[in-house]
Amino acid sequence: MDLERLIAVLAPAEVVGRADTTILDLAYDTRAARAGSLFFCVPGERADGHDFAPEAIRNGAVALVVQRRLQVAVPQLVVSDARPAMAVAADEFFGRPTEELEVAAVTGTAGKTTTAFLIYAVLAAAGRRPGLLGTIETRVDGERRPATRTTAEAIDLQRLFRDMLDAGDRSCAMEATSHGSALRRLDRVRFSVLVFTNLDRDHLDFHRDMEDYFDAKRRLFLGDDAPPAAVNVGDAYGLRLADELREQGRPLLTFGLTEDAEIRPATVDVTTRLRGRFNLENALGTFAAGRLLGIDDAAIARGIGSVAGVPGRFQTVDEGQDFAVVVDYAHKPAALEHVLHTARELADGRLICVFGCGGDRDRGKRPVMGRIVSELADVAIVTSDNPRSEDPLTIIDEIVAGMGNGPEVEPDRARAIERAVELAGPGDAVVIAGKGHERGQEIAGVVTPFDDAEVAGEALRALKTTA
Predict the structure, then answer these.
(1) What CATH number is attached to the domain comprising 333?
(2) pTM for the full model?
């Protein structure tokens, strides 16, 4: 693409150097810069992309998008903010893919991944050839690819949309995060429908407060080209959002477990194999999204009923033991509370919970999660999650500070899971919370292989051999 075409859509404040350059690719990371790249100098929390411009040029970048002029020999497009510029340029460069691709997105604190999986299944049941973008995996033409982050950077996101179209996909189910909204990664994505699941404390290491967090979600529903919305009015923030959308005359279909929801258990005929009140809400949100997409109720029901489970989301581990073992991604207060209530339904005996909290994230939720487990579980084992750069014992101390009764403490997560399995007896239920589908554990900047479900399975098999 000619650089002049990108200049036209970006409308930069200043163009430095000659514009008669051909752009072969877009990049924001020097490792991805190649011959013919337009490189975006994006200021970040820990590093500034402007500092890496010389390296990008050495790797083949032929032009830059900058927020301040640099002393370099290639053309520069000076913009006020490189992030929205990156979204606009990526949309144009990859041929405005979401003008053709039907995108059904899910946002909220909890339930995004499961609801995206359910919507994917509904789109498939309706014959709409879906792709999938989310926390666990990406699917293009049915082929699974590992996910890097829940909402990719704008260049990667638009590239994936183009890959889907080129591979024959005609729709996409995706997760839309508050980071993706606040960091402008989702700009220029033309959603066909957008689902709001709920909002609870999370990401307060990134957002100033809950209102700032809510605003990042809310802005997705209120743009000039805002899509039809399916909103959970059983959630306080969802109710606020629905009221605002009604006031503005926006297309809206409400769902939830309250009598004022348009899509509620009494109004639809659908069966889900997923357990728990929260998964019933996810199924209702999916049903509402399907209706807004014009899919008939029978296809919606088939799609929802076809999903037997989602990796790391209330995932059972069964090695023939006489007690239940559940692995779940719950790493925030409300999600942990929901999972423990649901697991209690599986237990004729005790409820045992293994959990921790991630490092370099919102510290305020640690004692809150400790209190929830101390109130809802019979046995609590506090362990490490992903400590990242923090001292694991410091994190554990902050969790334990919120617990009324004395929990067991075992910093080694594998040993903590083994301990829970050893303690469990007939009719008990073990919940291993926090990491879900993740395949690694990050300690002091080093990620080592770790899978809660695999570790639990190994512990259960070892228990059988010693019984």
Answers:
(1) 3.90.190.20
(2) 0.90
